[in-house]
């Protein structure tokens, strides 16, 4: 097989469920052949391959697999070094397990730094979210403050003249220029309720509750008006 990259091993790193598959040895052989300064890049290269597989898996699963491979083959080489009868062979195995242990330490440190960076990124994201929420709170406070301020555009009705005003509105609503020819026409009494609640207020800019107004425009409304102080008539009919 032709290798296109210095970190290619000829076989892909197998899934974690097949830890002792023969390609693990290819992975270890390549790891032993590179300089310790390249261990991090070697790891990232195969991590990218691992993540681009058909079944996406978390980074920590790949990290655990690589660490297990290093530990497994390191223990094998350590055992062989202890059993070897020849010094040259013993030294060769010692160099292998020492290099694997060094690679494992490099990857552990890389993993710790990665977690630290993830923690910093998380803190930054939380700070950004907190800042965004604070801005939203400030905006909401501004809206609430604006709503709490009196609406100077509304027309004020003194409390004691409220029913008198309602009676006048009702008379204007029912006013006929000619017989059966009303001055004002609407298909819904709710229109009057909305108009009054939106454009009028009681003393101190107290809002007029729409439900309070409904009783004057629906059903037996006249029983809620205790006295009439004005009468609106058409001069043409007088």
Automatic annotation (TrEMBL):
Regions annotated as coiled coil: 90-143
This protein's UniProt keywords: Coiled coil
Full protein name: Uncharacterized protein
Organism: Candidatus Sphingobacterium stercoripullorum
């Amino acid at each position: 097989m032709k290798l296109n990259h210095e970190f290619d091993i000829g076989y892909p790193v197998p899934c974690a469920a097949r830890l002792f598959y023969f390609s693990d040895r290819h992975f270890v052989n390549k790891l032993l052949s590179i300089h310790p300064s390249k261990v991090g890049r070697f790891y990232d290269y195969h991590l990218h391959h691992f993540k681009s597989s058909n079944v996406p898996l978390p980074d920590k699963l790949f990290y655990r697999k690589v660490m297990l491979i290093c530990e497994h083959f390191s223990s094998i080489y350590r055992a062989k070094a202890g059993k070897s009868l020849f010094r040259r062979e013993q030294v060769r195995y010692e160099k292998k397990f020492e290099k694997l242990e060094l690679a494992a330490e490099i990857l552990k440190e890389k993993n710790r730094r990665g977690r630290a960076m993830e923690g910093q990124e998380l803190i930054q994201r939380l700070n950004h979210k907190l800042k965004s929420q604070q801005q939203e709170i400030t905006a909401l406070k501004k809206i609430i403050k604006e709503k709490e301020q009196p609406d100077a555009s509304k027309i004020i009705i003194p409390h004691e003249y409220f029913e008198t005003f309602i009676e006048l509105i009702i008379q204007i609503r029912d006013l006929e220029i000619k017989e059966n020819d009303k001055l004002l026409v609407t298909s819904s009494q709710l229109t009057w309720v909305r108009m009054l609640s939106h454009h009028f207020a009681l003393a101190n800019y107290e809002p007029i509750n729409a439900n309070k107004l409904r009783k004057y425009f629906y059903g037996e409304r006249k029983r809620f008006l205790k006295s009439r102080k004005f009468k609106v008539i058409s001069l043409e009919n007088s």
